[in-house]
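Hey, resending since the last one bounced:
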Amino acid sequence: DVQLQASGGGLVQTGGSLRLSCTASGIIFSINGMGWYRQAPGKGREFVAATTWSGRITYYAESVKGRFNISRANAKNTVYLQMNSLKPEDTAVYYCRNFGTGNYWGQGTQVTVSS
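The structure tokens again:
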């Protein structure tokens, strides 16, 4: 079975930082692009960041550019999202997903930023 296990969410104050992790099993991680999405209460799921299989090319939503950084460790089957300078509007459930062999999503991890 394919599993994407996201972790690292929590409660943080405005301006704080969190690092999310997503560890994959059941897929050949190193040939898949990986990405993060988020869904705030009452809103649709939106793209946050993505990286190619090598990690050399990254993409970001305009709203997080300069504050978030996506990276990956293929030897650990893990993709990370370093989130800095967090704002209340970053509050959401964050999901990881793969791009490539199949279409899989993690279970989500809650990030809450207090003002």
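The beta strands are 3-7, 10-13, 18-25, 33-39, 45-51, 58-60, 68-73, 78-83, 92-99, 109-114.

Sorry for the duplicate.
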